[in-house]
Amino acid sequence: MTDRTAWTTADIPDQTGRTAVITGANTGLGFETAKALAARGARVVLAVRDTGKGAQAAARMTGDVEVQELDLTSLASIAAAAGDLKSRFERIDLLINNAGVMTTPKATTADGFELQFGTNHLGHFALTGQLLETMLDVPGSRVVTVSSNGHKMGGAIHWDDLQWERRYNRMSAYSQSKLANLMFTYELQRRLAPRGTTVAVAAHPGTSSTELGRNLPQALQPAVNRAAALLAQSAAAGALPTLRAATDPGVLGGQYYGPDGIGQQRGNPVVVASNALSYDLAQQRRLWAVSEELTKVTFPVPVSA
């Protein structure tokens, strides 16, 4: 059911004095998210792999916008970026884990992780863990991680072949990475809850017109393009669930925001439910332990009760 009053960027409270770090913010959803926050007064940091493209994106925004080099496919780059950000900012109010890759051909990150799992989940896990100390004492601070409707399409986490070394399916690997985004958010929120200052929230954009689908197999492109013409909303509309999760005063930790239309494809950003697998506590904790082991990053918050 659609809300009678749609939530728009006009509903974003004044962000003056707040610092927002947004990954993958030079294009698509990240660009629209950064643009809207900067327009409302936030100091926005575009954390991007290509700083030249980041500078071009920043030039198209109004407000206080900076660029930070960050390659989520490299733990060394993530550590360097986190160090830079902590030296530049005493506090971070918003960390928006937006960057992602989708249905890529089989490939690995610099550290040997399957590219989609390594970028979409492990890269953001490592970044969040290393930046969280700058957020824990900041009232109203939030970690917002962008998932996808695709989290429902690949089944459970493939514990027996987490890096897809034996048999690779690009859509299932994408789905696993997006399911991991949600499991990470829910476990992080439980760890943050006792402190009461920082919350973890998730969002998804529905079907939006961005460059994310550029790696889909060529045979699927005509059908995807036809479906997108009928279903897809603009990148600006697709960014609204993220923006609401990041700024709405009524947001609660552990919530998941997405469009309210049929199939959550498009519409007004509201609280939605993720699939049953994403709420499995044992699976969340197992993923957390494996993620710490793989990234060698531990968080300054204790295990959840």
TrEMBL record:
<dbReference type="Pfam" id="PF00106">
    <property type="entry name" value="adh_short"/>
</dbReference>
<comment type="similarity">
    <text>Belongs to the short-chain dehydrogenases/reductases (SDR) family.</text>
</comment>
<keyword id="KW-0560">Oxidoreductase</keyword>
<dbReference type="InterPro" id="IPR002347">
    <property type="entry name" value="SDR_fam"/>
</dbReference>
<dbReference type="GO" id="GO:0016491">
    <property type="term" value="F:oxidoreductase activity"/>
</dbReference>
<protein>
    <submittedName>
        <fullName>Short chain dehydrogenase [Beijerinckia indica subsp. indica ATCC 9039]</fullName>
    </submittedName>
</protein>
<dbReference type="InterPro" id="IPR036291">
    <property type="entry name" value="NAD(P)-bd_dom_sf"/>
</dbReference>
